[in-house]
Amino acid sequence: MLGLGAVAAFLVCTGMAMYHSDPSGAVVRHGAATVPTPAVTPVHSASHPASPSASSSTHPVPPSASSSASASSSAWFPERGNGDFVRAAGGTEVFGHGRLLRYAVDVEGGLGQDPEKFARQVDTVLDDTVHGWAAGGQWSFQRVSTGPVDFTVHLASPGTTDTLCAKYGLDTGGWVNCSGGDDVVINVKRWLLLTPYYKGKPDLYHALAVNHEVGHRLGHNHVGCPGPGRPAPVMMQQIKGLHGCVINGWPYDDQGRLITGP
């Protein structure tokens, strides 16, 4: 397992695939954190690339002035938010019995998404001591809004996801999530539109997205399908095909066994 301190860029899938080199050299500038308020707190800004190149990716980023929407108005999201993140207030107790990892949850402004709601969704996944990463006895988790953290879960627009992930040499093409260093980046496009295998199952996809990216943060690499009819591991690149496996968003089964593969 990789060390927690390693600033390694992990190719991300949350059921997604297809990363390419990013010639834009986009970087991220983190500003100083401010004192939390009872609501939300601005914590940092992401610098925007000057001019994304449509030829630099198989899935080019649309112009920043454009927006996307699905048939449901609740799935509206901008292709690029305002670049400023606010931190969800409050926190949780410690869940699990292993090494404690403290995490924060940040949401980019301009997405129309509530930081506290997104934080509760992330908490539901990471605080699951039956099927989540806390179930294995190696890790415990606690969300905080102040002080040092071991990683931050960001909800970001497609364009800002590209900027954040480019910091680790990852080209997310405006459509996937990523994990690198202490940053877990969830693309609001994926969060709202899900992926083909998870249509109509938002809670299960959200569990997959968080567990896959946090799994990379814990040092897990990609694995394959363990066999026909068996649950797809969360670290499997499910968007490339289930290869006989069935969808699954959790790292551990009902008997507390890690769901993994070759």
From TrEMBL:
<feature type="region of interest" description="Disordered">
    <location>
        <begin position="38"/>
        <end position="75"/>
    </location>
</feature>
<keyword id="KW-0732">Signal</keyword>
<feature type="domain" description="DUF3152">
    <location>
        <begin position="76"/>
        <end position="242"/>
    </location>
</feature>
<dbReference type="Pfam" id="PF11350">
    <property type="entry name" value="DUF3152"/>
</dbReference>
<protein>
    <submittedName>
        <fullName>DUF3152 domain-containing protein</fullName>
    </submittedName>
</protein>
<dbReference type="InterPro" id="IPR022603">
    <property type="entry name" value="DUF3152"/>
</dbReference>
<feature type="signal peptide">
    <location>
        <begin position="1"/>
        <end position="19"/>
    </location>
</feature>
